[in-house]
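Help needed: design a sequence for this.
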């Protein structure tokens, strides 16, 4: 029997075609499993909303930060960190939106890209020109969370803390996450203080969660999860 090159090519194409079918079937199975898991996750989010005490915040910066930290610890070289970040940002934003459809972000101008990625097209947001506008909207409950450049935190530091009930909860990519949530102790916290004795107020970062300090000139303003 004479075997031609064309015959070998046909056999190779046949096995390749079968292999592609098998791989695509496996992907279909995974997609179905993922869909079921997403459905379960969203259902649990709605259930959480139903059992929460009225007035409890739906967005917990420290919890989200810990979740992402745990996920990143499981990432190896065969998966991109950005894929995990965007996928879970989408899930987390949808979870917040399912618990509070009116959830709103107030963000400082210049943080458009960060805000859009954070909202994942689920959460509504608006931009302000000044830190005073941002604080006012948080104080008047016109927004649930504020995004402000951490490098400029001294501009609004006097508005943060026990007296106003507004706290710096978290820092992501040099963006301060500010809201009425009391900072949570997570094991990755750093306390943030402002100096009242310096003409140009400085921000001090100190390990630990509590507001205790030996220096009277340092005023506790909140904390973020440091990952």
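Sure. Designed sequence:
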């Amino acid at each position: 029997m004479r075997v031609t090159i064309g015959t070998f090519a046909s056999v190779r194409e046949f096995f390749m075609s079968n292999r592609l079918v098998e791989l695509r079937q496996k992907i279909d199975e995974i997609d179905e499993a993922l869909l079921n898991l997403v459905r379960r996750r969203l259902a649990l989010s709605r259930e959480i909303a139903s059992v929460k005490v009225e007035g409890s915040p739906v967005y917990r910066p420290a919890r989200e930060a810990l979740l992402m930290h745990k996920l990143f610890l499981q990432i190896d070289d065969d998966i991109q960190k950005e894929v995990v970040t965007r996928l879970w940002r989408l899930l987390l934003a949808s979870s917040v939106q399912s618990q509070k459809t009116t959830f709103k972000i107030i963000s400082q101008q210049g943080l458009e890209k960060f805000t859009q990625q954070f909202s994942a097209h689920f959460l509504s947001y608006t931009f302000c020109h000044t830190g005073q506008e941002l604080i006012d909207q948080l104080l008047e409950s016109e927004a649930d969370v504020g995004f402000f450049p951490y490098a400029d935190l001294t501009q609004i530091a006097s508005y943060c803390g026990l007296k106003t009930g507004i706290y710096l909860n978290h820092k992501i990519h040099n963006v301060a996450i500010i809201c009425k949530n009391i900072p949570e102790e997570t094991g990755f916290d750093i306390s943030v203080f402002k100096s009242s004795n310096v003409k140009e107020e400085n921000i001090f970062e100190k390990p630990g969660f509590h507001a205790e300090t030996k220096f009277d000139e340092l005023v506790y303003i909140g904390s973020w999860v440091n990952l």
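DSSP finds five helices and eight strands in the chain.
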